[in-house]
Every structure is written in structure tokens, then in C-alpha cells.
Amino acid sequence: MGEYIVRRLLLFIPTLLGLTLLIFVILRIVPGDPAAAILSGVSGELSYTQADLDALRARLGLDRPLPVQYVSWLAGLVTLDWGRSLYNNEEVFATILKRFLLSMELALLAWIIATVLGICVGIVGAIRQNTLADYASRIFSIVGLATPTFWLGTLLILFLSRVVNWLPPPGFKYFWESPTENLAQLFWPALGLGYFLNASVGRMTRTQMLEVMRQDYIRTAVAKGLRERAVVTRHALKNALLPVVTISGIQLGHLLAGTVVMEQIFSLPGMGRLLIDSINRRDFPMTQGVIFSIGLIFVTMNLIVDLIYGWLDPRIRYR
Amino acid sequence: MSGTSLRKRHVLRRLGTTLLLGVVAALLAACSAGAPPPSGTTPVDESPKRGGTLKVALPYDLTQYDPLSGSAATLVQLKNAVWAGLIGTDQQDRSKIANQLAASWEFNSDKTAMSFKLRPNLQWHDGKPLTADDVVYSLLRYNAPPKGASTGRGACARGAMKSVRAVDAQTVEITLPAPSNSFLACLSSGFIMMMPKHIVEPIDQGTYRDLDPEREMIGSGPFKVKAHTTDSTWELVRNDSYFLEGRPYLDGVTEYIMPDATARIAALRTGQVHILPTFPSLTPSEADDLKRSLGDQVRVEEYYSPGIGRHTYNILRPPFNDPKLRQAVELAIDRWEMIDVIGQGKGKVSHPFDYQPWIMPYEEWIQKPGYRKDKTQDLAEARRLIKEGGWEGLNVTFTYRTVADYPDRAQLLVDQLTKIGLKVTLRAMESRAGSDAMNKGDYEFGTVDSNEAFGDPGAFTSVYVAPSNNVSSGWQTTPEYKQAAELWKQQDQEFDLNKRGAILRQVVDLMMRAGWIGWNYRLATFAAWRSELRGYTTPNNQNSQDMWDQVWLAQ
User: How far apart are CA B83 and CA A75, in angstroms?
Assistant: First the structure.
């Protein structure tokens, strides 16, 4: 297992290097000069002179050759000096860390909802195959998958404000500042995201459960008189969960980058919103930092899934 | 019934019950924080009440904290609550200039110099005295910004002053290179704010950087910054040493950043915020819905902010280097249809100086070819020009950014120009990329909107005549430009309103003759606030100040 972990860890380095190069190059190819963006204002309506532009480019370090900018960014990544926002001078690393905590919490909540909901729906579908309960659970999942999150989020807001006359408290409080307020703020967007994501978990669980339930050892377990709950939860579910773990792990990675719509609708200052805003503003250091962080999370999630795989199925680590 | 199916049912029931209990528990927990606000009509009581925290919804956060650089018009209210100007907008009658830090001011006889007497015992939020030195330093900073700093909407003051000096600790004297009509209006803009020298001087002397929002946003306005969470919240508390005695009435102001329009409206509906931003405005149907469903719990006012919807032709390259083609397009564009479709009938045809009827009344403007309601004659003439130029079936490309109502405008343009035999290819661009393309002249014709930074024609200097703006359109290469630029200087020095108006009409005529620009429409703006907020007046100008020092909460 140790050798397997080292092997997987070593693959990390070239992946991350490739990622940094890709981020850096793509941002420079995209049209839109950050200095011009700052000078021309939010709607691009302000005028400026070439001298203004040159002075600002020099201040922001955008006049340096691209390889120099890349190497200096790379060196900063290693020393955790990820630079400062071109706009408000905020430290990129500290900002991302703050935003990450919010997005991580939202993603985790949504992931828990999606996984619990998905597994339950999958089990129901498998145990009651081709019955009304099966059809209902499948429709429930598919509707979630087919509903765009921006629409679901908007519906949630409208439902809460028009029917309940209540909304999650505005602003944002971290869990340690006010646990109830924090949960009230995050539950609804997490519910929307979780509902959206439960379909793939549910369908995968159902398919796997159906397959496993037909295995000889399940028949043996039933034949030797085990209670059905024990057969389902202890024997069938554990073995059916392997691909579900993979899907769930990847979903968590996706969630961290995919919370942007819900963050926007529920006014949460998370990482998704930070990414969209910094791309729109052409805030290079911030955009680079956020995309790199998301990439890092993805790679890490893949690594964790691989390691769990290796733990669940020993054959994998000896390949 | 077999034992297996009973057990199956048992497992399912347990699963279902657990899930249901979980969902109910989560719903209860999620709804437990904060109770719904009391509903009902607020009793009318016009005498100001002290206390309470005003809650304001903002569409986005400040991207730059230094007032020198900030350009977001909708956020001027946040900055003006913290920083005061020398003079500003009267909070009750927004068309008037009012004293802020200045107790009085006067011009010299030839109007090339003015002196401002400061109010006594002025203080910064950190308790340090505010003196003429601070005012001089702030004004010089606008006049010649530190290297590497952008100038935002306070650009009207850039290079506008010949000298600024402190006569004594209470008096500031500004000398202008020539008499100027617009300078006073420029100074009253919400974007010209006085800054503490002890905070900004050290910043300016090194490599320029933005302010730290929690430590360095020190002003002299009615509220002090208590806390800021980027993209989430601004917490402001009353400044007890504010220069207007007894003000502000509120204990504080909390501004929530809410990027989603539905969420903002929902927050007003449930009483989580007292007021919505005026930009982006509510749509007419949203405004109607609020009025209908909340009745007297909410006030919705319709007004026109001076946003100028316009489009620009690149006259340096084909096909719009031909003035007749530009003329045909201008005649074919139906501004009234755009207002009906995009603004649900609530809007006006854009007019270069809509806020100054003494230059050209709106009624006169909408009689002009292209701008009038009846399109019969205009379309016939446009078709004739197209035929004469041999442009039937010509494909023209319209560049626009995918923001605001630009995409709707572009779609309508396709229909309207088809009527005269042109084909329009739409080139939709992401906002920054679109701005870049327009600035670099990489377009045939496209959309650019602009706003008045203050209530004087001088506000449009950068839009219409600045040598550095609209360069890509080719405007500066036309013979009309030189004349227009000269006339623009003259109008600023002409203090007779009729004569000034006549000069400005000539400028408009020259711009129309050069044909690099066309005006579209201006949609109605809807301000909405809860009725417990009292003393609020809608801004006549998107950039006029909301200092929140005149408002109070009835509940």
C-alpha cells in the first residue's frame, strides 16, 4: 500500500505543473487587458490615456515578459505567496482560503444530501424493482438531474419568500461564528445542489444493487436465514458501493467548482463567485489562484478516491 | 404474505422514516435562525426618529476602495456614507448643490478662483482634525493622480485646477486655468471625496496600492466602517463627530452584497433589506408586482437616470466609412420599438443632453429624423439611400457585449435593418473582450453606453470630446471634431445659459454631421424601498450621493 501511495503521489507533480502552465497560457490568450479593464471601469465606459495604461501596467507587473511572470507566479505558489488582487490588493492565498471554507462546507452539505438521498433512492429502486416505488424514485432522481440549478435556486428563493415569508439570513456567518445562522444560510443552496446531484448516485446505487442482489453469495446469505436488513446493508450495499464511492468522490470535486450558481443566487461569498468575478475583471493573480486551487482539489480528490479504491479492493494496488 | 416481503417492507419503512425525520429536522434547523419580520402598514410619523440599522441591498461589492479609483456608479452611496466631499448634492433636492465639509464658498470676480471656508472643528473618523491641508492634498490628488492609480469617475477634476492652496487651516483656494461652468458641478459629484492626508500620503509615496478597507477607510462622512466581508457585507456605524449636528439619525447601515436580482427582490419582500439598488433597476413588471403584492409596505418610484444608450460607428473602415450608409442605418433604427419591447413601454429616446432642457428640449429632439415616432418617411429615405449606394443585401456586423439589455437591443436591430435590405451579423462578446474590441477599433458598429457623472454638460466631456476617448471610432479624424472640441471649451466658459445652450446645440449638430454616433433609448429606473424608511429621495443622477444622513426608520 505504501508503494502504491508514493507512486500516486509522484504523479501529482507533473499534473500540477501542467495545470499551472495551462492556466497561465489560457488567461493570457483570452482577450481583455486587466489594466485597461481597471481604467475603463465596471461598464467599460471611462476614458484613459496610453500613459495611464502604461503606468498601471508597470505597477501591476504586467509589463514584464510572460516567462518571467510565469516563473515568479510558480515560485510564489511554492512559498504560498500567491500574489495580490490587481483590484483591491487583497492577498490571493488568504482570500481563497476564506472562500474555500465556505464553498467546502456548502459542497460537503450538498454532497451528504446527494449521497444519502441517492443511496436511499437507489436501494428503494433496487429492492422494489419495477414497482410504483421504483418508478417514483427514478422519476424523483431524473427530475433533479434535469432541473438546472439556477432555476431550482430561484424557485427555492421564490418559495421561501412568497410562501413562507422567510429567507435565510443575509450576509454570511461561518459555522464557528453562529452555527444556526450558518446552517440556515447553507441548507437551502445545499438542498438544491444535493437534489441535482442525487440522480447519478441513485442510479448507480440501483444498478449496482440489482447486480449484487443476484449474486450467489447473497442467495446464500438469504438461504442461511439472515434477516433482509442484514443482507441488504451488510452484504449487498457494501459491495455495491465501490463505483458509488468513485462517483461520489468525483462529485465532491465537481461540487467545489460547481457551487457558483447557488452562491450567486443565495449571495454567498464562496470560491465559485470569486472565480467568476475575477475572470470578468481579468484579475490574473486571483483567477490563477482560484483555478489552481480547484485543480488541486480535483487532483487530490482523484488521489483519495484511488486510495480508497486500493483499500476497498486490494487487487488494484498490486497492478 | 411471505416473511421476506415483510422484512423488505420493514427495511423500506425504516429507511423512509429516517429520511423523512432527517429532512424535517433539517428544515426546522434551517428555518430557525431569524423570525419573519412584522408585516403591516407603518403608521405615518414624519418627525425623524433616532436609532435602527438601515439594511441596503447592493448588486456587487467595491472592487477598489480608494475613492480616487472607484468607478462603480451604484456603489457611490457606500463611499459617500464614509467619505464626505467639500460640496455635494442636496439630499432633499438632488438637483441642488449643497455644502458638505465647506461651510461656504465664493468665486472671485472673473470666476477663475474660488475659496472654500471649512466648517469648524471637523474631524476624521479616527479622531484626528480635518484641516485645509487634507482638502488641498485630496484635490491635488484628483488633479494629478499618483503614478499607477486609475482615476475613476472623478476624472472631471483631473488637470482641471491650476493651483490649490491652504490660505489658513480653515480656508482653501482653488485657481482654475480659465473660468469654468462645470467645475463646481464636478466638485459636487459623489466621486470627489476628501481623504485624510495622514492616511493616503504614505500610500501615494510608495508604489501606489489600494486602501485596506478595515483600517484605512477613514473618512469624515456620517458613518464609519466597522467591518467588511468581501462580496458579502459592509457594516457601518454612526459617526458621532459628524459635521451635521444631530445627524445621522440611524445607528448604522448594513449593506449586503446580493448579485441575484430575484434574491434582492425577495429580501425586500421579506423585510431583510429596506432598499434596493437603483442600478440594475427593477423591470416595470417587477415594480408592478411589488406594488401589487406589498401595497403600502413598499414605495416604488419611477424616474429617469441619465444613462445614455448609444451606438458607435467605426468610420475609419468599410462599410461605415460611407456617411450615407450610416445615415440610412440611423433612419432605420426604431428607438420607440426598442422602448416598447425592451422597456415594456417605459422609456425615453436617448438625447445627448436630456438633463439640460435649456440646451434642447426633449420634444424638439424627438421630432428629428430617425428619432421621431412615425417611421414611414425615415424608412422610405433609408431604403432610397441603400438603393442609391448599392448596399442591398450588404452584411454588416454589430458588436455588443453580453451585458444589460445589449443582446435584446442587438436582436431588434437585426429586424429593423432587415427592413431596409441590410443583413446584420451579431457579434456577441464577453464584457471585457467586447470593451477591448471596441477600444481597439475591432468593430464595424457596436453598442457603448455612458452615464453622467454630475448634473452638467461638462460631465460628458470624456464621452463626446476627450481626445483620448472614442479614438477607435475615428471621430477625432473628422473635420467636425476640431470645431466641436473648440466649441466645447467655449461652452464651459460661457456663463449665459442661452448662449451656452446654443453652443452645445452646435456641438450636437457637429457630432450628428460627423455621424460616428447614434443615440438609442433610456429606460425608466425604478427605486424601491420599504415604507418604514423615511426621508429618502430618489437620486436624479446615478452618481449623486446617498449619504444616508437624512433618512430614518419609522419602526
Answer: 39
Q: What's the gap in Å between the CA of A117 and the closest CA on chain B?
A: 8
> To the nearest whole angstrom, how far is the Cα of A19 from the nearest Cα of chain B?
24
Residues of chain B with pLDDT under 70: 1-45, 71-74, 306, 540-545
B481-to-A59, B441, B467, B491 alpha-carbon distances in Å: 34, 18, 9, 15
Q: What is the DSSP string of B188-225?
A: TSTT-----HHHHHHHHHSS--PPPTTTT----SSEEE
Find chain A residues with C-beta within 8 A of B433's C-beta. Answer: 30-32
The class (CATH top level) of A92-316 is mainly alpha
C-alpha cell at position A2: 505504501
Tens-place pLDDT, residues B70-79: 766 667 778 8
Nearest to B15 among A38, A123, A183 (CB): A123
Size of interface A-B (CB pairs under 8 A): 220
Over residues B341-368, the pLDDT tens digits come to 999 999 999 988 877 888 999 999 999 9
Which residue of chain A comes nearest to B228, CA vs CA?
Answer: A171
Asked if the Cβ–Cβ distance from B63 to A187 is below 8 Å, we say no
Quote the longest CA-to-CA distance of chain A. Answer: 86
Q: Which of B252, B216, B233, B271 is nearest to B65 (CA)?
A: B216
Please tell me the distance in Å from A177's CA to the nearest CA on chain B: 13
CA–CA dist A241, A238 (Å, integer): 5
Please state, rounded to an integer, the average pLDDT across all residues of chain A.
Answer: 88
Q: How many CB atoms lie within 10 A of CB B399?
A: 24
pLDDT given for residue A161 in this prediction? 94
Query: What is the reported pLDDT for B43?
Result: 47
* Residue B280 pLDDT: 85
pLDDT value, residue A36: 82
pLDDT per residue over A206-251, tens digit each? 999 999 999 999 999 999 898 888 888 888 888 888 888 888 877 8
CB-based contact B257 A187, cutoff 8 Å: no
Q: Do A166 and B15 touch (CB under 8 A)?
A: no
Quote the CA–CA distance of A293 and B502 in Å, as a whole number: 60
> Are A116 and B22 contacting, i.e. CB atoms less than 8 angstroms apart?
yes
| Residue B278 · residue B525 · CB < 8 Å | yes
In eight-state DSSP terms, residue A235 is: I
What gap in Å lies between CA A1 and CA A13, rounded to an integer?
A: 20
What are the structural domain ranges in chain A? 2-78, 92-316
Radius of gyration of chain B (CA): 27
Query: Which residue bears the cell 452646435?
Result: B506
Q: Name which of B33, B71, B401 is nearest A180 (Cβ-Cβ).
A: B33
pLDDT at B548: 92
Place of cell 419602526: B555
Distance linking the first and last C-alpha atoms of chain B: 65
Span A268-294, average pLDDT: 91
**Rounded-to-integer distance, Cα B209 and Cα B204, Å:** 8
The Cα B211–Cα B155 span in angstroms is: 19
Q: What is the DSSP letter of B128?
A: P
| pLDDT value, residue A319 | 58
Hey, of B4, B9, B10, B11, which one would you mutate to test binding to chain A, going by the most A CBs within 10 A of its CB?
B11
A134, pLDDT greater than 80? yes
Helices (H), B392-531: 406-418, 431-440, 479-493, 497-514
pLDDT in tens, A26-54: 999 888 888 888 877 766 666 677 788 88
Nearest to A47 among B266, B434, B466 (CB): B466
Distances (CA, A) of B451 to B72, B140, B159, B522: 11, 25, 21, 11
> d(Cα A11, Cα A8) in Å, to the nearest integer?
5
